[in-house]
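FORM 7B - TANDEM STRUCTURE REPORT

SECTION 1: FIRST PROTEIN
SEQUENCE AND TOKENS:
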Amino acid sequence: MPKQRGKSEQELRRKKKFRRPSKLILIVVEGQETEYNYFSELKQDLKLPTTTIKVVSGSGGSCIDIVKNAIKLCDTNQRDNQKKGKPKYDEVFCLFDGDRPEYKQAIKDANRYSVYKIKPILSIPCFEFWFLLHYRYTSSPFENCKQVIEQLNRELKQVGIEDYDKSKSGYYGLLKLKINQAIANAQKLEKQLSESNNPSTTVHHLVTHLQTKKKV
């Protein structure tokens, strides 16, 4: 009986040659709760074959602090690339809420560091508005995030889900089946934004961008 051979060096080289290079994406969020959990769970669900996603907490603070933290991480990443040959970030995203007056300055700060191509992902008044869009479309302005959560809780109650709790994980899985509806609602709203941009969100841009990586 002929002896079974392993893969030849030529076959292994051919396989390595055609392996797609991995892209590295950095997502910096405000804290370690809602946004952090959501994108960590999204990352696990997508199981992207050629993209590595790193979700990092900005440790709270202002929108400006989130951008500063992203810049600091990019600086460190660039030094590691030059000294140790570690992969550089191909894309960088910063998530923050527009219920804080400094968000416009944070966007300017992000754009100033064009070398890192930091893309701000803004929700007005807050990230939870993205969750609300999974259940219904609305263009009515909100005074604050509390009002968004009140409406979100009404929607959750109708489907037998307890009130929204920022500290809990699992909201990505809970909302996953309605994600296309949320994207459609966000796109519709984007076409008719008021001057105040209240309410609005660009989270759908990041979500759809990551989804396309799965098709590569």
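SECTION 2: SECOND PROTEIN
SEQUENCE AND TOKENS:
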Amino acid sequence: MKGRRPTPAYGALPRQSTARHVINLRALDGRRAGSSLREIAETLFANSPIPARDWRDHPLRHKARTTLRRAGRLVAGGYRDLLYYPGKAPR
């Protein structure tokens, strides 16, 4: 209408949320395939290998752990909440 771009449909997930869910599922697939936390972090988030001496306190280690936790919650039933976006699921 009048040269404007169409708006996203009501309830459509934002691109950032969609990208985050894709990363969550990729991390979970890697974990179930037997990859270590370090391999997952290097594959999904790092541009270069993480030195062994830095791994213990590396920010990507914490990011990978958080991603795996979030993915576990989604697979355990949290994905149903996506059906109610942007509202809240009834409890």
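SECTION 3: OBSERVATIONS ON SECOND PROTEIN
The longest helix spans residues 15-32.
The radius of gyration is 17 Å.

SECTION 4: SIGNATURE
Preparer initials: ____
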